[in-house]
Write a structure and sequence with these properties.
binds iron/sulfur cluster; 30% helix; Glutamine Phosphoribosylpyrophosphate, subunit 1, domain 1; 6-stranded antiparallel beta sheet; single chain
Length: 470
Amino acid sequence: MGGLFGVVATENCLYDLFYGTDYHSHLGTVRGGMVVTKTDGFKRNIHDITNTPFRTKFEEDLHKLEGNSGIGVISDYEDQPLLIGSHHGNYAIVTVGRINNAQELAHQAMSNHHTHFTELKGNEVNPTELVASIINSEPTIVQGIQKMHQTIDGSCTLLLLTADAIYAARDHYGRTPLLLGRKGERTYAVTMESCALPNLGYTVERELGPGEIVRITPEGIENLAPPREEMQICSFLWVYYGYPASSYEGCNAEDVRNRCGAFLARKDTVTPDLVAGIPDSGLGHAIGYAMETKIPFKRPFVKYTPTWSRSFTPQESSMRTLVSKMKLIPIRELIDDKSLLLCDDSIIRGTQIKDIVQRLFAYGAAEVHMRLASPPLLYSCPYLNFSRSKSKMEFIAYKAIHALEGDVDDSVLAQYTDADTDRYAAMVQHIQTQNGLTSLAYQRLEDLIAAIDLPAEKCCTFCWKGCRRP
Ligand code: SF4
């Protein structure tokens, strides 16, 4: 995934930039970067944050950077921010999203013999550099951003820092959020996570709409391209990866999670001794379930937060399994002889759930029921680098279908997305049995959308339904 944050001020903005970018640390695990500008050009730092939190890595840099405007990024893959010299003048740029046709666009750009790319990773172009090259191919920055939105297959939200302003552009369909914050008369922030604003003294000015472009200076916010009506915001923001304290399109993530849990509870018939959430992203769902049923919410697993604080997990599967085991400490007194109901956002690959269930039964659990706040994941996300899975074959739901039927065509697969079909019931039963669960139930898609509380046509649900809209 990735996250970004920017500040425009009339005095040194570094501390706001530092903490504001840090508040996006749950969105990426590989690279962090900040760039600031004053009168003497750009000053930039990029660090590998694979094993060390952003704040720890960048604390040492604070005295080396100073500027009145700056942008920062947490990135899962590429080095950012990039510094670009162009006919638009010098600028720095950060992006969040995914470009499926990156190689094709890079070849097209290079075919004119005037474009080259310097930030290759293996043989792949850096997507942020590709975005900059498209922006540079047009007479103005705004025309360049709009051309980029029209030519990429995927999604891109960006911040572009010039000597005197930040250009902020939300992706064409608004799959990722982007908000403006204000502090006093002449200081502005732009952020993906609204939770980055209050502790830094900002209030939310407004959200940008899909495809909207603004230019931010201490004098104010200039609208350069209006928002589009059509929106497909990522529903997974509320279910999983958005921060609970953030709101997107006016809907708070923790509130939505509580409602997800309540919807699950209303459809349920089991009567466990306690309700628990898989830390951290299952907690809001579990609280909602417990409030609805009046069954006690407890923590049979406690996360060891002093060192395992990050919610995103490592890239390698063996490390993911180890981390998932080490960070959750079971409490025998809350498990032994108890019927437990666990809530989580989703099961993607299912590599951790089996281990959790086995550990609970080893600690004496009488029953382990699992409730998931979203429907079974059957399609890889084509818009964001949300899931590291390259293929749907890695998804636990797809593996269950494969075990039941072998290879299936799209029409058969579509039946598994319908919670009222026998095929859907067989898939859920298979996952339940394979993981040793006493019972398993997933959220229905219509209940998830009702919990988000936005019109269904404004929410992207591709990874559950497979309908690429538009
Ligand atoms: S496909 Fe899924 S993860 Fe990707 S933008 Fe849509 S809802 Fe979000």
